[in-house]
């Protein structure tokens, strides 16, 4: 399953991380819709708002379905058939959608048939491993293995120095398959866009942590096919929904257990917080180096702009803002982590169970 994520990247950086090529082969950045409603966080939970990628054709008639939009949406799909004004009365959990029953439940089948497919963006997600003979559950942070800039495929696509800033070659966001829907309040008003993350059986390396995982779209081709509902029908797109072994993970502190905690400690490897001197993988070094220099900062408010005609307005309901600020010692811990770096990255091991 997937019940908690981290997505702390500033919106401009997130857009650069999602650079893509359209149907004509032109390199582009997805356009933000309602960017001021995006709240970066190390600890996002259901009913909060998270950024998703979707085809521009969902919002603009006659648009190219290969063009992309980034928009904040509520995590936890609100079904079209729900008629109560109070969303707390929705008694079903729609934060996740099982791939094996997606065509059996109308809450998910209807938006899927309509082509309402999206890609949920995150630094990574959290999962809790149950320990045998104890009530303790160990949290893990799970993410894509990170590639050094000189190994990145995107670097080779840069045609000139001016194009360099358009290509983000640092942290690779996790791209999870999702479906979304548009719910109209009974009393009228702006539509509420919400989504559900599709889940599959866990891959071999994660099976000891949990038996379910998000359906991760690994690579630009998979992301493109999933989003392009104008060219790729639902049945063909569903073939992309399967486990991936291309994943990295490490143990983290129980500070992440509370969704109110929003700080770098949520993603820091556990041994660092415990003061232990252990070997660190190159992938995790890459992540912490990025966090040390690119932690989210409060942005200056922008002048409100008039909404475009015939474009749905994204609801600001249920945006979760954490009152907990990062601890002062976070930067020092990150610096300690970076000093432990090694050139070689060890092969990821299966988590130890007791």
Automatic annotation (TrEMBL):
Its main location: nucleus. Its EC number is 3.4.-.-. Residues 296-309, 336-348 have a biased composition (Basic and acidic residues). Keywords: Autocatalytic cleavage, Chromosome, Covalent protein-DNA linkage, DNA damage, DNA-binding, Hydrolase, Isopeptide bond, Lyase, Phosphoprotein, Protease, Ubl conjugation. It is an enzyme of class 3 (hydrolase). Residues 313-323 have a biased composition (Polar residues). GO terms for molecular function: lyase activity; peptidase activity; single-stranded DNA binding. InterPro entries: SRAP, SRAP-like. GO terms for cellular component: chromosome. It comes from the Eukaryota. The keyword Protease applies. One of its GO terms (biological process) is somatic hypermutation of immunoglobulin genes. Residues 293-354 are annotated as: Disordered. It is found in: Chromosome. Interacts (via PIP-box motif) with PCNA. Sensor of abasic sites in single-stranded DNA (ssDNA) required to preserve genome integrity by promoting error-free repair of abasic sites. Acts as an enzyme that recognizes and binds abasic sites in ssDNA at replication forks and chemically modifies the lesion by forming a covalent cross-link with DNA: forms a stable thiazolidine linkage between a ring-opened abasic site and the alpha-amino and sulfhydryl substituents of its N-terminal catalytic cysteine residue. The HMCES DNA-protein cross-link is then either reversed or degraded. Belongs to the SOS response-associated peptidase family. This is Abasic site processing protein HMCES.
């Amino acid at each position: 399953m997937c019940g908690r994520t981290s997505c702390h990247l500033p919106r401009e950086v997130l857009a650069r991380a999602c650079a893509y090529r359209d149907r004509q082969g032109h390199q582009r950045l997805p356009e933000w819709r309602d960017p001021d409603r995006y709240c970066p966080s190390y600890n996002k939970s259901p009913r909060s708002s998270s950024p998703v990628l979707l085809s521009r054709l969902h919002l603009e008639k006659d648009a190219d379905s290969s063009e992309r939009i980034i928009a904040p949406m509520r995590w936890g799909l609100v079904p079209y058939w729900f008629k109560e004004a109070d969303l707390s009365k929705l008694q079903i959990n729609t934060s996740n959608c099982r791939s094996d029953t997606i065509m059996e439940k109308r809450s998910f089948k209807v938006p899927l048939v309509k082509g309402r497919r999206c890609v949920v963006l995150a630094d990574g997600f959290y999962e809790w491993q149950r320990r045998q003979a104890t009530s303790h559950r160990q949290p893990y942070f799970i993410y894509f293995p990170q590639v050094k800039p000189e190994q990145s495929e995107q670097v080779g696509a840069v045609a000139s120095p001016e194009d360099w800033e358009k290509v983000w070659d640092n942290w690779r966001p996790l791209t999870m398959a999702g479906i979304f829907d548009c719910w109209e309040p009974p009393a009228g008003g702006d539509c509420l866009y919400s989504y559900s993350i599709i889940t599959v059986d866990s891959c071999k390396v994660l099976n000891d942590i949990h038996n379910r995982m998000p359906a991760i779209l690994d690579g630009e081709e998979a992301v493109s096919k999933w989003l392009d509902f104008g060219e790729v029908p639902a049945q063909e797109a569903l073939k992309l929904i399967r486990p991936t072994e291309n994943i990295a993970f490490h143990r983290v502190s129980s500070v992440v257990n509370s969704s109110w905690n929003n700080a770098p400690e949520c993603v820091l490897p556990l041994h660092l917080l415990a003061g232990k001197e252990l070997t660190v993988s190159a992938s995790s070094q890459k992540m912490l180096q990025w966090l040390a220099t690119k932690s989210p900062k409060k942005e200056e408010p922008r002048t409100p702009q008039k909404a475009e005609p015939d474009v749905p307005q994204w609801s600001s309901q249920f945006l979760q803002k954490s009152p907990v600020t990062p601890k002062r010692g976070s930067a020092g811990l990150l610096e300690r982590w970076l000093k432990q770096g090694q050139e070689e990255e060890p092969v990821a091991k299966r988590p130890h169970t007791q």
